[in-house]
């Protein structure tokens, strides 16, 4: 696997940082929140078949740009962005996983402790929609019961090539208790909303007490100055500006 990554790098196929598993930041980061211009960290994963646009969605969300020639993800990639959720600054730590089957064993190890999961299919390729049950099974088995899963029908700009209707995907989402949006990583439509909707639901779960911040794998970290665990204090002071780490 490492040799494969090196080879891909040499061929210039990999443009974004590739992590070796034994040096993966997730093994050392422990979701610390310092220094702080945000109140919470939410861990997200993005899953779905290869080529559905997971990396492009992440790139559009973090950089507000579309990558027309995006290389296949090798293993996992990582991005962050701070966004405001119900008046609180929240840092999203987002793990973008490879859709290729050969990386499945590797990517499964990143599901643990995710507060949110974006499960993506391509509205122009029915096979990517048909595989959702398998992605959902993994997501359910490998995350905790409170993990918020949002289904994203990507490539909404390719209406003429549509192969999956909005209605059937909406029904699938409702039957499985998922949030749902169609989006386009190309135009940016609903990309912000996808990440935000999941974050709002996570925040709501914290507020109503259904998500315990003290639970080891809640996928949420409060900034250290806050009271430990329990309910969220919606009146807590906004963190100081000036640092985005
Ligand atoms: N028209 C259109 N093309 C898109 C969109 N999103 C992604 N693409 C294209 O689809 C291809 C695959 O996108 P990626 O983001 O690499 O797909 P991925 O899901 O990360 O694929 P893997 O890393 O292999 O799992 C690229 O050529 C993108 O330019 C979109 O919203 N609209
Ligand atoms: Mg990718």
UniProtKB/TrEMBL annotation:
It is found in: Cytoplasmic vesicle, Phagosome; Early endosome membrane; Golgi apparatus, trans-Golgi network membrane; Recycling endosome. Keywords: Acetylation, Cytoplasmic vesicle, Endosome, Golgi apparatus, GTP-binding, Hydrolase, Lipoprotein, Membrane, Methylation, Nucleotide-binding, Prenylation, Protein transport, Transport. It is a lipid-anchor. Its main location: cytoplasm. InterPro entries: P-loop_NTPase, Rab14, Rab_GTPases_membrane_traffic, Small_GTP-bd, Small_GTPase. Its cofactor is Mg(2+). One of its GO terms (molecular function) is G protein activity. It comes from the Eukaryota. Residues 217-245 are annotated as: Disordered. It is an enzyme of class 3 (hydrolase). It catalyses: GTP + H2O = GDP + phosphate + H(+). NCBIfam families: small_GTP. Belongs to the small GTPase superfamily. Rab family. This is Ras-related protein Rab-14. It comes from Perca flavescens.
């Amino acid at each position: 696997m490492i040799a494969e990554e090196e080879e891909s790098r040499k061929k210039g196929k990999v443009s974004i940082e590739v992590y070796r598993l034994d040096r993966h930041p997730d093994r050392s980061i422990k979701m610390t929140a310092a220094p702080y211009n945000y109140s919470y960290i939410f861990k997200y994963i993005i899953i779905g078949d290869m080529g559905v646009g997971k990396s492009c969605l992440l790139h559009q969300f973090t950089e507000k740009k579309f990558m027309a020639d995006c290389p296949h993800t090798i293993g996992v990639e990582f991005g962050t962005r701070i966004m405001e959720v119900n008046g609180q600054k929240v840092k999203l730590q987002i793990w973008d996983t490879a859709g290729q089957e050969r990386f499945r064993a590797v990517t499964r190890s990143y599901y643990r402790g995710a507060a949110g999961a974006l499960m993506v299919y391509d509205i122009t390729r029915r096979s990517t929609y048909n595989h959702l049950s398998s992605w959902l099974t993994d997501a359910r088995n490998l995350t905790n019961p409170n993990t918020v899963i949002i289904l994203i029908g990507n490539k909404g700009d390719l209406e003429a090539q549509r192969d999956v209707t909005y209605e059937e995907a909406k029904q699938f989402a409702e039957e499985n208790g998922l949030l749902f949006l169609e989006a386009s990583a190309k135009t940016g439509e609903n990309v912000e909303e996808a990440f935000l909707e999941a974050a709002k639901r996570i925040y709501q779960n914290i507020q109503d007490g259904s998500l315990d911040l003290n639970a080891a794998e809640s996928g949420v970290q409060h900034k250290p100055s806050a009271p430990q665990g329990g309910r969220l204090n919606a009146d807590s002071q906004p963190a100081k500006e000036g640092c985005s780490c």
